[in-house]
Amino acid sequence: MAAPRRYLLESNALDYLSENPDVVDLIVEASAQDKLVLLVTQLTIDDLNQIPDAVWRADLQALFDRLPVEQAPIAAFLIPDVPRARPTYPGEAVYPASDDQARLFQLLGGDHRADARQAISAKAAGATLVTSDASLVRKALAHGISALSAADFAAEVRVIP
Which of 53, 77, 101, 119 has the least CB density, counted as fewest CB within 10 Å? Predict the structure, then answer.
């Protein structure tokens, strides 16, 4: 049996999934058959919890709760020239960043720390980043990180044998 495909879901991809419930069903089925691993980071969970519209947040939380997710660790950085840099990310799943990851963090735009952390976390986990942020997909791909738009992810999920 082939190794399962690994994906790291950024929170903004949940919007797309909410409009495509068939994809959620396929994700659940593929995961149950060990054909897909869906990862999230604490950033994904925090973003979900920060949605100001309580009804929309509850809808996305219900969708999220259906997904068979595993938590991936987040790189912990302390980069002197990045404003508001902090040595760790709140939460339990952190690991120290390597020098290569720190350089990649800067190249991805350390000023957009959450995006850069998600992309680096996907790479470290051997996963494809799934996001609705087209700019992040382009940046990640330009720096050797596998990334897909939420729509392209859905297309891949639909053809998992």
Answer: 53
